Amino acid sequence: MNSATPGSTDTTKAATETAADADTATPISTRPANFLNRRLPTNPFQVLECTDVHVYYGGFQAVRGVSMPFAHNEITALIGPSGCGKSTILRSLNRMNDLVDGARVEGQVRYRGQDMYGKGVDPIEVRRRIGMVFQKPNPFPKSIYDNIAYGPRVTGMNVDSMDELVEQALTRAALWDEVKDKLKQSAYGLSGGQQQRLCIARTIAVQPDVILMDEPCASLDPIATMRIEGLMTELRDQYTIIIVTHNMQQAARVADRTAFFTATVDDTTGDRTGELVEFDLTKKIFENPADRRTEDYITGRFG
Ligand SMILES: Nc1ncnc2c1ncn2[C@@H]1O[C@H](COP(=O)(O)OP(=O)(O)OP(=O)(O)O)[C@@H](O)[C@H]1O
């Protein structure tokens, strides 16, 4: 693999060049449009790619043999029944599993062509480039302003005007108008939906490339959920978004492509191990899935 860490000048240059070559990259699948008739490039650039990824927690195999790409400027949804390894795979996409005791990832995860788990790769830089928004909004016990400014400060980002950066991040997360007059107040004073948009703004503030979202609307009411979904579709133009959701309607509403996972019992170990059943355009997954298990899940016959 390239010896440069993500974030080094070489890698950034390579990334830019690779992105410019997006139209010549390997196609994920041929498709003229998505479920919502959004026009998409025929040959999307694959920002991330899993190849035969297996994840273990100690001796327990949580996920087996996942291979799939994640396209640039698209939303990819990971769906499937509880315990099939959606969050585990999501966390392997920015080395968040490194923080879990006993967790081990085998196989390859490539980010812009580079082995993310390769020697010399800095996991902190990986997580800056590939940010994560969690199920429960988790603002820091700080002011709204400091929640946004924290990441750029600790990562030593070269910032001309922190005030401008804070405003931009909050604007992109569709929160600025609601908080601009109370930036110095505690983030805990915001509603759950506002807190989640603050967490998205906080993620954006360190200028990521990819945003991972682990059931970001699970603790929100329907109105806050609609705002976050609207926000996702706006952010897609600038970022690559990967979302884990239990809500199939949500996947159908926002995702360009969808991956369906399930868990099967290993006859030898007795473990319930997650695996990827099918990955395709969201429209295809919902209207004409190739695998019976996908169809059963989509139609509510199982899971
Ligand atoms: N930190 C951990 N330590 C040990 N086992 C874990 C850990 N996290 C997840 N697991 C196990 O790995 C398997 C996959 O869990 P994971 O949370 O990835 O599934 P999921 O599909 O996201 O589930 P859900 O939809 O319920 O959130 C489960 O059997 C779970 O118990």
As residue ranges, the low-confidence spans are 1-34
Shape type? globular
**Residue share in β-strands:** 15-25%
Structural class: alpha/beta
Helical coverage, percent range: 25-40%
Neighbour order of strands in the largest sheet: 5-4-1-2-10-9-3-8-7-6
Q: How many domain regions?
A: 1
Do you know the CATH topology? Rossmann fold
Brief account:
One of its GO terms (molecular function) is ATP hydrolysis activity. With 303 residues, the protein is an alpha/beta fold. The chain contains eleven helices and ten strands.
Describe this structure in words.
- This protein is of the alpha/beta class and 303 residues long.
- It has one domain: Rossmann fold (3-Layer(aba) Sandwich).
- The protein is 33% helix and 24% strand.
- The chain has helices spanning 9-20, 86-92, 123-129, 144-154, 162-172, 176-179, 192-205, 222-235, 248-254, 282-287, 292-298, and strands spanning 46-57, 60-71, 75-79, 103-111, 114-115, 130-133, 210-214, 240-244, 257-265, 272-281.
- Strand 4 (103-111) and strand 5 form a beta hairpin.
- Helix 4 runs parallel beside helix 7 (192-205), helix 5 crosses helix 7 and helix 7 packs parallel to helix 8.
- The termini are far apart.
- The model is unreliable at 1-34 (pLDDT under 50).
- Bound molecules: adenosine-5'-triphosphate.
- The site of adenosine-5'-triphosphate (ATP) has 14 residues, from helix 2 and strand 10.
